[in-house]
Amino acid sequence: MELTGFFALAIAAAFCALSLKKYAPETSVVIAVAASAVLLIQILSRITPIINEINTFVSAAGIDSSYGIILIKTVGICFVCQFVSDACRDAGQASLASKVELASKISIIVISLPLFENILNTAAGLLIKN
Which pTM was predicted? Predict the structure, then answer.
C-alpha cells in the first residue's frame, strides 16, 4: 500500500467512525479498531528491511546479536502497546489503556535485563581494574 493509500484509508476510517459515533458508538469503535489493525499490518509488513539493516549494523559493529534481538523485541512491544492502548482509549477505556502501557513497560524492562546485567558487569570490571 502506497503512503497516499495508507493516509486515505486512515482518513476514510476516521470519517466513518466519527459519522457513526453518535448513532452507533460500538460500530464506530469496531471500524476504528479494524482500520487500525489493517494499517498496523501494512506497517509491520514493511519492517523486514529495517530488521535486516539493524542486524547488519550489529554484526558490523561486532556486538553480540542478542542485543539486536532485544532492540527489535522492545520496538515491537512499543508498536503493539501503542496500538492496543489507542484502541482502548478510542473505546473510552483510558484506565485499561494505562494498564496496557504499564504492562508493556514492565515487559521491556524484563526483556532488557540481560543488557543491564552486561552493562553492570562491564562497569564493575572497569572499577576493579582501577
Answer: 0.72
